[in-house]
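[Discussion] Sanity-checking designs against the backbone

I'm trying to build intuition for which residues belong where. Below is a structure token string of 439 positions. I'd appreciate it if someone posts a full sequence so I can compare it with mine line by line.
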């Protein structure tokens, strides 16, 4: 190769390396691809290594991912608390604005979550993905009578509601934080922030406000350190996932996976329609702005892990005022789980179909309403949906044998629904609190 060609090649290589270093989403895409290839090579599809070695290799490969998620979780509670308190405190001069934001956010989350759960149930009943999976020759016996035979399930739910509502207010906020009860921390932070707003002596509260500002600064610094691990975390988590499941395992459940992904795609389209109509923003421009957040959420399966990046994106790319972003994003990341509600609706009906259990229309309606309530406040962390799903199956007497199929592909679907959930969070910022000056 001639000297000018070598110089030109080095120059292009340097520009490419610089371009990749300055774009986290490009690093994540490369890590996803390399992780998928690595996982396929050491997984069950090629059978190049034994299962024990594959499991051990997967654990070591996932180590950066574990460190990344633990670093985020380590500062998540102070980050959420400080963001909500400061976001509310900033609105002390305009309480009406806070009421508008809170009311609009509640309406947004309730409406989209109900739509998502209903959509998931409708698709599962129409396509019937459970019929493609055979676990036995005869239907399994139902574990408890049908809804029609129960005394009064709505009355039972009404009787339990007061205790559930009372428990939303934590009696011990420190214990709630220690137990990673995100919703309790959010409620506590809202009360502290509202106390800032209601105080008639703002000067006296200045030291406490400075404490929360320092807490937020320290938390964001730790988050910045954690972000350096992101490509390595994505590579390792992806490799471990593919190595454990194998590509072939996903294809055997193609109908179920397809129904969930189709439902999530429809939900994503709904967000884009709302962005175009209510947010006054072109869908393509919105997707370009939120793509790095979607990619990181897909890779980590944690809406909590991307919360700092979500707030930065809302402020800098979606025209959301800083105090509004600090208020909306932590709340939405905790309570806006429309994608999760859709997935769980499909999963419950899928497992019922596998077991040969026929659900009546009132049961389906109660499942949808129960999932809307259960998904709001579910922690934004990997694997939480399975715990909720197990409880839902038990509540409706559906044999849980088919749950093994759901667990087998849960990680893949967890990644997908988390990406849709954070898209909904960012759409809420643009729709509810966009700055008119930014267009």
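Best answer:
Here's mine. Compare freely.
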């Amino acid at each position: 190769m001639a000297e000018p060609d070598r110089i030109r090649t080095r120059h292009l290589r340097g520009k490419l390396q610089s371009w990749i270093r300055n774009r986290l989403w490009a690093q994540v895409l490369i890590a996803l691809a390399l992780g998928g290839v690595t996982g396929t090579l050491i997984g069950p599809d090629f059978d190049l290594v034994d299962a024990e070695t594959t499991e051990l290799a997967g654990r070591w490969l996932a180590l950066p991912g574990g460190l990344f998620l633990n670093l985020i979780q380590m500062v998540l509670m102070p980050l959420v608390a400080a963001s909500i308190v400061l976001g509310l405190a900033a609105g002390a001069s305009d309480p009406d604005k806070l009421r508008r934001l809170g009311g609009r956010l509640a309406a947004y989350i309730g409406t989209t979550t109900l739509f998502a759960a209903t959509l998931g149930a409708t698709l599962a009943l129409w396509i019937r993905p459970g019929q493609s999976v055979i676990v036995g020759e005869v239907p399994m016996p139902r574990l408890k009578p049908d809804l029609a035979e129960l005394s009064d399930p709505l009355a039972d739910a009404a009787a339990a509601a007061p205790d559930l509502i009372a428990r939303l207010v934590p009696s011990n906020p420190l214990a709630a934080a220690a137990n990673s009860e995100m919703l309790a921390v959010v409620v506590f932070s809202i009360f502290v922030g509202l106390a800032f707003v209601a105080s008639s002596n703002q000067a006296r509260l200045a030291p406490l406000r400075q404490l929360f500002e320092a807490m937020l600064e320290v938390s964001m610094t730790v988050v910045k350190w954690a972000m350096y691990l992101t490509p390595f975390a994505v590579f390792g988590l992806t490799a471990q996932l593919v190595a454990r499941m194998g590509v072939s395992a996903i294809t055997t459940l193609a109908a179920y996976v397809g129904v969930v992904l189709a439902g999530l795609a429809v939900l994503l389209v709904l967000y884009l329609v709302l962005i175009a109509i209510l947010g006054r923003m072109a869908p393509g421009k919105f997707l370009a702005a939120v793509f790095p957040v979607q990619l990181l959420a897909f890779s980590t399966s944690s809406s909590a892990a991307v919360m700092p990046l979500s707030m930065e994106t809302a402020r800098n790319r979606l025209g959301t005022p800083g105090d509004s972003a600090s208020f909306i994003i932590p709340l939405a990341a905790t309570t806006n789980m429309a994608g999760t509600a859709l997935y769980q609706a499909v999963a419950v009906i899928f497992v019922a179909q596998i077991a040969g259990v026929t659900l009546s229309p009132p049961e389906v309606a109660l499942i949808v309403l129960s999932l809307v309530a259960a998904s709001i406040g579910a922690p934004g962390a990997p694997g939480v949906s399975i715990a909720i799903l197990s409880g839902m199956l038990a509540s409706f007497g559906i044999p849980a044998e088919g749950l093994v199929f759901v667990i087998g592909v849960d990680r893949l679907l967890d990644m997908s629904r988390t990406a849709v959930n954070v898209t909904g969070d960012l759409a809420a910022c643009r729709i509810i609190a966009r700055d008119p000056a930014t267009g």
